[in-house]
C-alpha cells in the first residue's frame, strides 16, 4: 500500500514494544509522514532513538497529556500549524492503577474508576474534538481496544469497563463525525507483550491460551496490528466506520 503524501499523528509510543510503534513502522514503510505525541519530555529521548530506525524523516514530536483538554487543544493546534492538516490520528493510550488490575472489580475505587475512564475512554472524545479541525478530507481516527471490553476477564476489571466505554465512543463518534466525512474505528488486538502488559503476572498463561485455542494457534505481533491500523487510516477503508476490527488470530470467535 502506498501512503506517500499522507500525514498521520501517532499518540502512545512509549518504547519499541508499543503497539503505536508497530503502527509507526507499518505507516513509515508505506511512505506516510508521521507526527508523534508524547506524554512528557522523558519519552522524547527514547522516541528520538527509535526514529532513526525508520526510513522517512519524521521530526515533529509534540507533548500531549490527554488528562488535560488544554494540552490536547494546544498539541493539535501546533500540529495543524506545522503540517497544514493531517489525514488521520492513531490513539493508543490507556491507563489504570496497577492495584485495580488484580483481584475483584468490586474493590475498584471511585478515583481509580475515574482515572481509568478518563485516560482510556474520555481521551478519545477530546482528541476527536481537537483534531477534527485539522483533519483533511476523508480523514479518520483509529483507537486500540481489547476483548475484555466485550467479555468479563480475570484481572482486566476497570479496564474492561473503560474499553466498553471506548468502543461505544467509537460508534457515537463515527455518527457524529460521519456528517463531515470523517471515519472512526478501533482495532482490538490480541495480547502482546508491551510496557503496559509487562506488569501482568499471568501474561504467559494468557499467551499460551491463545496458542492453544485461537483459530490461527499463535499470537499476533505489533506489526500485524500496525498493518491493520494503516489499512483503516487509509482510503482503502473509505467505507468503514464505527467498526471494531479484531486482530487476534480469530480468538474472539471462540466459545
Ligand atoms: C486480562 C488482561 C491482563 C490484566 C490487565 C492488564 C491491563 C493493562 C492495561 C493498562 C492500560 C495498563 C496500565 O495502565 C499499567 C499501569 O498501571 C502501570 N504502567 C505504567 O504506568 C507504564 C509506565 C505506562 C507507560 O503505561 C501506561 N499504560 O500508561 C489483559 C491482557 C491480556 C491484554 C492487555 C495488556 C490489554 C490492554 O488493554 O493493554
Automatic annotation (TrEMBL):
Its EC number is 1.3.1.9. One of its GO terms (molecular function) is enoyl-[acyl-carrier-protein] reductase (NADH) activity. The keyword NADP does not apply. NAD(+) binds at residues 12, 18-19, 65-66, 93, 163, 192-196. Pfam families: adh_short_C2 (PF13561). Substrate binds at residue 96. Pathway: Lipid metabolism; fatty acid biosynthesis. It catalyses: a 2,3-saturated acyl-[ACP] + NAD(+) = a (2E)-enoyl-[ACP] + NADH + H(+). Keywords: Fatty acid biosynthesis, Fatty acid metabolism, Lipid biosynthesis, Lipid metabolism, NAD, Oxidoreductase. The active site is at 146 (proton acceptor), 156 (proton acceptor). It comes from the Bacteria. One of its GO terms (biological process) is fatty acid biosynthetic process. InterPro entries: Enoyl-ACP_Rdtase_NADH, NAD(P)-bd_dom_sf, SDR_fam. Belongs to the short-chain dehydrogenases/reductases (SDR) family. FabI subfamily. This is Enoyl-[acyl-carrier-protein] reductase [NADH]. It comes from Jeotgalicoccus meleagridis.
Amino acid at each position: 500500500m502506498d501512503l506517500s503524501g499522507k500525514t498521520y499523528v501517532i499518540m502512545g509510543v512509549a518504547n519499541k514494544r508499543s503497539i503505536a510503534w508497530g503502527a509507526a513502522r507499518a505507516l513509515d514503510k508505506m511512505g506516510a509522514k508521521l507526527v508523534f505525541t508524547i506524554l512528557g519530555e522523558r519519552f522524547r529521548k527514547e522516541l528520538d532513538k527509535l526514529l532513526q530506525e525508520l526510513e522517512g524523516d519524521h521530526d515533529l514530536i509534540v507533548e500531549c497529556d490527554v488528562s488535560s483538554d488544554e494540552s490536547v487543544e494546544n498539541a493539535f493546534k501546533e500540529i495543524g500549524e506545522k503540517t497544514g492538516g493531517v489525514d488521520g490520528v492513531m490513539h493508543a493510550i490507556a491507563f489504570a492503577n496497577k492495584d485495580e488490575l488484580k483481584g475483584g472489580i468490586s474493590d475498584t475505587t471511585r478515583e481509580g474508576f475515574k482515572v481509568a475512564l478518563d485516560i482510556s475512554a474520555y481521551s478519545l472524545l477530546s482528541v476527536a474534538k481537537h483534531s477534527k479541525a485539522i483533519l483533511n478530507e476523508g480523514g479518520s481516527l483509529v483507537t486500540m481496544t481489547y476483548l475484555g471490553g466485550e467479555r468479563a476477564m480475570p484481572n482486566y476489571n476497570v479496564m474492561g469497563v473503560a474499553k466498553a466505554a471506548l468502543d461505544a465512543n467509537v460508534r457515537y463518534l463515527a455518527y457524529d463525525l460521519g456528517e463531515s466525512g470523517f471515519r472512526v474505528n478501533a482495532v482490538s488486538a490480541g495480547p502482546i507483550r508491551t510496557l503496559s502488559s509487562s506488569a501482568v503476572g499471568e501474561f504467559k498463561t494468557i499467551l499460551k491460551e491463545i496458542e492453544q485455542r485461537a483459530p490461527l494457534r499463535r499470537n499476533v505481533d505489533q506489526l500485524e496490528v500496525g498493518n491493520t491500523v494503516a489499512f483503516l487510516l487509509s482510503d482503502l477503508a473509505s467505507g468503514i466506520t464505527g467498526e471494531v476490527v479484531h486482530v487476534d488470530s480469530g480468538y474472539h470467535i471462540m466459545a
